[in-house]
Amino acid sequence: MSLLSLQGVSKRFGASTALDALSLDVGEGEFLALLGGSGSGKSTLLRVVAGFERPDSGRVLLRGADITALPPQRRDVAMMFQSYALFPHMSVFENIAYGLRRMGEAPGPRVAELVEMLGLAGLEGRRPHQLSGGQQQRVALARALARRPTLVLLDEPLAALDANLRERTGFELRAIQRRTGSAFVMVTHDQAEALSLADRVAVLDAGRIAQVAPPRELYERPATREVARFLGAANLLDGPGGGFALRPERIRIAPGGRPARVEEVAFRGADVLVLARLEGGMALRLLLPAAARAPAPGEAVELHWEADDLVPLAA
Amino acid sequence: MGGGRPRSARRLTRALAWIWLALLVALPLAVVAMMGFGTAQPGIPPVRLPWGAEGWQGSPESWALLLEDDYYLGAALRSLRLAGITALCCLVLGFAMALGIARMPARRQTLWLGLVLAPFLCGFVLRMAAWVGMLRDSGWVNRMLGHLGIEPLQLLYTDAALLAGMVHSYLPFAVLPLWAALARRDLALEEAASDLGASSFTVFRTVTLRLAAPAALAAFLLVFIPAMGEVVIPELLGAPDAVLMGRAIWAEFFQTRDWPLAAVLATALLALLALPLAVQQRLSVRR
User: Does this complex have an ipTM over 0.90?
Assistant: First the structure.
């Protein structure tokens, strides 16, 4: 039995459909990423699971029990908000202790444990506005974990951090998830974040799940055009019997391939991005290793790829 | 603020504000404070200022009277009680109204705020006269009671009538600052609290109310301060023998024509009101 099960959940706001008969299962202790653009319904999905929104139809099950009609305070689910939503009038200690106090539990030992786990020692007496962004993020996570929820929802947990902090915090998030054993469901619009952190990634498009799969499978075998497009600028080709995705790093410059002309070349450090136009008008993106000889703009080249590299897409 | 404006323009606006304060606030206050040390005399004006041709001739006699005579202390306490109760009623009612309005969709909020302010479209004295018409012995309420076979009640010129009139006219001053604070509160904080297991009441108590506390204090003072010196409403609706500060000042000034005593009363009232304001300043600086 899965930990969380969404069954045909729909939610409409006026004329727009946020969730369209969506079904999804999350296993015990799993780290699932919900990946989608703005308006894909990923935040609404999180809010339905947390209990802030009632779905128009469908059911939400937690360990087999129907929680669709339960208010947030009666769900064994904790949410970490994108804005962190730390209580500005309370200290770090009181923020983390808030949920424990509501259970009538003496908060001391558990707060100490979380402070230690998240490296917040010495900050217990500070107010949220006296903390850095990274520290605030940790307090928000500690507060969500305090009641040992079986399911933790994270709304863009890394979005508010600056780039060099994001990578490290991502690894820490992963480590904490393993250590607590709680299932994490994380909403993100960043494909690299989703692929690097999650056990499985669910790609949302227009209120529906376009594909759920482990990161590597999702990356190499995108099921639809939307998924391929969302997972980082794959080339989309039309062929007999439908569309194909062709990853930029699978294309090589080699004699005997298809003739093309190089239009743009951009050195990016680890690799070189090349934009080349096939005879017949189609533009392709190529990623060449930085060590390879980069072609010059305007140069005539021949592009080569294996038949296996063409991933068929559903309409 | 005013970042792009040239320095001279900033200086001019600041100077205008200072001139305004000096001429219309500081100077009259100084005159009133000084008058408190003068002596009453028949004539126009009915006061001899303490600083004349022969130098300082002031006397602290009016201040001494204020401290000796229970009459004025009684008036101050009655005013304190009335202003306190009025401000408290306005705070509780105003909080409920402001929260209700803040929870509406944005367009309905404008309409309801307009309704809160609507009484201002009708003259103040007229609004109070309506209470008189409603509450007097042969008024609307007593006629209704008469139809039910109940003897007419003394409604007008009671503390209850006075409180009704006070709350009625001061309520909007409490609703506006509370609404301003509640309308821009961060809803995610309340969601976070309920997500962490707090019931609706606990969310209200530990988050909503706690974060609105500065606005609540402001709302309280916005009612409390003018209510302390209120003259007209007690005159129209209140019991005639229960003298309040505003009434006492008015009587000394216009009836007994003891300007020094009136000035002393006014100064004392101001000092009394400066205290809570100073506390509020302290609190808002600390935040």
Answer: no
